[in-house]
Amino acid sequence: MHCLPPYEDYGVQKVTLHPKYDHGMIHHDIAIIELDREVRVDKHIFPICLPVNEESQFVTYDQSFYITGWGQTDTTDAPTTLQKVVVTRKYLFECQKFFKESEVNDNHICAEGSDIKHSCKGDSGGPIFYVHKFADPDTYRYVQYGVTSTGGDLCGKTKKQMEIFTSVISMLPWITQNVL
Description:
Layout: E1 12-17, E2 31-35, H1 54-57, E3 64-69, E4 83-90, H2 92-98, E5 108-112, E6 127-133, E7 140-150, E8 162-167, H3 168-179
Antiparallel strand pairs: 1-2, 3-4, 3-6, 4-5, 5-8, 6-7, 7-8
């Protein structure tokens, strides 16, 4: 794995799965990972915000988001550098049509990649986020809107595909109960 220096490696102390998560299913597909030591915030290491207030929870359909991950870039290969892609939020019914056997509901976010750029195998658990401009004129923050749950199987193919993310907003009560 290649990251820009200086990078930090952390171990995992504890993983807390959502109590309603069922392995292999898309419902409640979220976990909290406790690291083995405190993260030292620096100019290149900074926390992402959660959408805890109304201002940061307001997003529109057809809004662009970023996703990042270490998943495959075609049908077989995993990248050696972290990948970042822009996706567009879509209505849930669009994902319900695309993923006919999955039960997409209000706890999900539906998004669409563009051309060959979208989530792929190995990206699960990664963030979907955006840069939010707060009321304070010069305050911009990355806000995590969801967690990658599943995408299609068109890795590296030139066709748009839908993706499903677990909504952080709908999971906030569980997150705050288990973090604070």
